[in-house]
Amino acid sequence: MPAGLVALALGGFGIGLTEFVIAGLLPQVGRSLAVSEAAAGWLISGYALTVAVGAIAVTAATAGLPRKPVLTGLVVLFVLGNLVSALAPNYPVMMLGRVVAALCHGSFFGIGSLVARRMVAPERASRAVAVMFAGLTVANVLGVPFGALVGERWGWRATFWAITGIGVVAVLAIAALVPEWAGKPEAETGTAGALSAQIRAMRSRQVWLTLTATALSYGGMFGAFSYLAYTFTEVTGFSDTDVAWLLVVYGSGLVAGNLVGGRAADRNRDRALIASLTALTATLAAFGLLAGSPAASVILTFLLGLFGFAPVPGLITRVTDAAHGLPLAASANVSASNVGNALGAWLGGLAISAGLGYTAPLYVGSAIVLAGLLTMLLTAHGAAGQEGQ
Fewer CB within 10 Å, N or C, the chain? Predict the structure, then answer.
């Protein structure tokens, strides 16, 4: 495994911690900064919205620049954002720190996925992307318990100081270990990677169909995940203290799904995507039916993570191939996933508000992923037709 991939995974781990760790710290942060629960919650929502917008805006602003310095600069931005959060004297400054950190998120994973796949043979591209995203999935497993542990022992600011330190190490690792040539693919020389070229590449029907499949697959999974704690406690009968280890089970599924999905996509990408989306649709529907069983819920929680993240490496390499390897499409994929997350959580909340119960987001999620599966089938059929011409 190239050392540069490990450096990128470390950057992904730090960025993932920044995204997930706040969930376990919200009560502390809210009390410390004297804001309501709703206002504290915007430290999560504001981050997600910034990722959705920043992924495309920052990638567009850096179009045509060498990718390694851009990646290094993005992690420096991440360090600054967490430093601001650690020092924040009040809520507006804390929100500023979250926004600054979020600006690097989408572009780092978008541009970094292109650099990662350049470090390996073409037939291992999806696995390389999976290694990079392994940092994000491990952060999902460790983020909330890590933040809660450090915050409980030394205060919530200590958590952000720790993440800042991880970011500094990631900057040094990327600068030392990611090769310059990995940021200079043959298809992109001179000004060919400028914004105008990237916008032209985004006109592809295959790009937009793949982005739609991304948004729907993420939206279905996240719409269910957003209300999973309520399902566990109100339907299955788990206690509040059980939720933390159940989320670790889910996170472990994410880690496994990321690695399995990367390998499967390298063998036959569209077949792997169709299979994983079919399995995710079925898992969500089965979870809704069997949520009253503790044993079934534990198994299905793991499968939700497994099949929920398995499509990610393949979707990223698919959309970048359709856009001729230009980074705007890869970053747009991150934006699409965040748009899907917001849509899924909104629709799941509407179902609960309509009195359909705490299993309703699981059924809603299954329906959303089914739409993503149909989109993927249409996309794969279109790609096969183009190859046959």
Answer: C
What is the rounded distance in angstroms from the CA atom of residue 249 to the CA atom of residue 379?
32
Percent helix, strand and coil across the chain, each rounded to 5?
A: 85, 0, 15
238: phi > 0 → left, psi -120 to 50 → alpha, else beta; which?
beta
Distance CA 307, CA 33 (A): 39
Under a CB-based contact definition with an 8 Å cutoff, are residues 112 and 71 in contact? yes
| Neighbour count for residue 191 (Cβ, 10 Å) | 11
- Return the exposure string of 79-93: e unless at least 16 CB atoms fall within 10 Å of the residue's CB, then b: bbbbbbbbebeebee
CA dihedral 26, 30, 33, 35 (to 10 degrees): 140
Both tokens of 362, joined, read 């699981």
Q: What is the DSSP letter of 62?
A: T
User: What percentage of the chain reaches a pLDDT higher than 70?
Assistant: 90
Tens-digit pLDDT profile for residues 121-171? 877 888 888 888 888 878 877 776 777 778 778 888 999 999 999 999 999
Tally the residues of the chain: 389
Those residues with Cβ within 8 angstroms of residue 238's Cβ, 6 or more apart along the chain or in another chain:
232, 246, 294, 297
Q: What are phi and psi of 234, to 5 degrees?
A: -95, -25
Amino acid at residue number 102: A
Backbone angles phi, psi at 183, to 5 degrees: -95, 10
**Helix axis angle, 156-177 relative to 3-21, nearest 10°?**
160
Return mean pLDDT, the chain: 84
When pLDDT is averaged across residues 55-77 and rounded to a whole number, the result is 84
* Cβ atoms within 10 Å of 111's Cβ, excluding its own: 25
